[in-house]
Amino acid sequence: MNMKPILFAFILFTFTAMSHAQTDKFAEFREMFRKELAAADVAGGSFVFIRDGKVLVDEHYGLANIEKQQRIDAHTIYHWASNTKPFTGIAIMQLRDRGLLKLDDPVTKYLPELRRIHNPFGSMDTITIRHLLTHSGGFRNGTWPWRNNKPWEPFEPTEWSQLVAMFPFTEVLFEPGSKFSYSNPGIVYLGRIIEEVSGESYEAYIDKNILRPLGMTRSYFDTTPPHLLKDRSHSYYVRDGKRTEGRFDANTGITVSNSGLNSSILDMVKYVTFLTGISEPPVSAGGRSGGIETMDRTDYNTVLKRSTLEEMWQPQLPAATDANGNPGFTTDIGFVFFIDASDSRKLVGHGGDQNGFLSYIDIEPATRTASVIVLNTNVVDRSALGGQDVVSRLRRSIRMLY
C-alpha cells in the first residue's frame, strides 16, 4: 500500500486545520481590539501582527481627529514617544561597530559637563555608555522636574544649556551599574553623544543612518512637515469620563532622542521587519483603505548587523523592579530593549507613553514574529480597566497569536 498520498493528505489536513485555527484567533483578537478601545473611549488606534515578513493582521480603529471625523488608517501618523529610545540605542551600536566609540567609555569623555552632577558614589567618570544603555547610570526618571503643564510652558526643554544648568542641582541616586531604574535623562545623554561623535544633529543622523535606509519616508521628529499634516493624528486624554485634547504636534526639544519620533504604521512595519530579520518585504492587500502595502527589499545589515541586534537583546540587569522597588516593565533590560522571559518564550520590545499617545512593540526573535499596538488616547483613570491601561491589557491577549 502506497502511504505517500495518505501522508500528504494528513499533512495538508493538519496545515489547513492550523490555518483555520489561526484565522479564528485573528478574528477573535480583531473583535477584542475594537471592544477594548470602544469600552475605554479611545478615539483611535492601530494594531499590526507580522510573521516571517508578512502582515497577518492589519487593524485600524476609530478617528485620528474627532472634530474633523478623520478616520484612522495605515497612513495615519502617530507620536511614538519612548519607542524612540531603541532608535537611539541602535545609533549608539552603529557608532560602536564603526569604531567611533566604546560601550565602556566614560560618558564624560564626550559630555564633560556631567562632571557638575553630584555623585555620592564616586567620580562621574565611572559612569559609562553601557550604564546609560541599561538604565543603570543612577539618574532620575523624569527629564524636567519642574513642569506644571501650563499652556505657555515648552513641552520639553528646548536647549542643551537648560539641562546643563540643572547639573549642579542633580544627584546620582544609586551606585552606577548596580541596578536598573528607568531614566529619560540617561537616553538624552546618549542622544547628545551621538551628536558629539557624528558631528551631526540627532535628527539628521537618525534620518541618514536608520530612517532612509529602511525606506521610512513618513517618519520624522517633532513638528510635522506640511505635506504630512493631513495624516497627523491628534491625541486625547480621558479623565473621569471626560475627554480632553493633548498638544498637537508637540516639540520634544532637546529630549528628541528620548521621545521625539513620529511615524505611520506603514513605516513602523518597515522598522519592525528590520528587527525581526526578514529579508523579504511584508506583503498585504495594500491601498488607502487601511492595508499595509508591499515594500522594497532592504539589506538590513547596512543598518545594523544581526549579531549586534542580538547583542542588544541579551539580559544585562533584572528589570522586574526599579531602584525604588516599584514594578518594572518586564523581566530584564538589555541595551535599551526590554526583555520579557516570564514564560516559555522570550519577547523583546519597548513601549511609549507621552502626550496622550500609547504604544508597545513586541518581538519574538525565535519565530520572527512581532506585534505593534498604538493608540491616540490615554485613559488616565484606569480603575474601570482593572488597574491596567488598554495597551497592557491588549498585550496580554496578544500572547494567543504568537
Q: What's the structural blueprint in terms of helices and strands?
A:
Elements: H1 4-39, E1 44-51, E2 54-65, E3 70-71, E4 77-81, H2 85-97, H3 129-133, H4 160-166, H5 184-198, H6 202-211, E5 219-221, E6 236-239, E7 242-245, H7 256-259, E8 261-264, H8 265-276, H9 306-312, E9 317-318, E10 332-333, E11 338-340, E12 347-354, E13 357-364, E14 369-375, E15 377-379, H10 390-398
Helix pairs in contact: 1-10, 2-5
Detailed description of the structure:
- This protein is an alpha+beta fold and 402 residues long.
- It is 29% helix and 19% strand.
- The chain is built from ten helices and 15 strands.
- It has helices spanning 4-39, 85-97, 129-133, 160-166, 184-198, 202-211, 256-259, 265-276, 306-312, 390-398, and strands at 44-51, 54-65, 70-71, 77-81, 219-221, 236-239, 242-245, 261-264, 317-318, 332-333, 338-340, 347-354, 357-364, 369-375, 377-379.
- A nine-stranded antiparallel sheet has the order 3-2-1-14-13-12-11-10-9, sandwiched between helices. A three-stranded antiparallel sheet has the order 4-8-5. Strands 7-6-15 form a three-stranded mixed sheet, with no helix packed on it.
- α1 packs antiparallel against α10 (390-398) and α2 (85-97) packs parallel to α5 (184-198).
- The longest helix has 36 residues, at 4-39.
- It is globular, with a radius of gyration of 22 Å.
- It starts with a helix and ends with a helix.
- Mean pLDDT is 88; it is low at 7-18 and 280-289.
Give a quick precis of the structure.
Helix content is 29%, strand content 19%. The protein is built from ten helices and 15 strands. It has helices at residues 4-39, 85-97, 129-133, 160-166, 184-198, 202-211, 256-259, 265-276, 306-312, 390-398, and strands spanning 44-51, 54-65, 70-71, 77-81, 219-221, 236-239, 242-245, 261-264, 317-318, 332-333, 338-340, 347-354, 357-364, 369-375, 377-379.
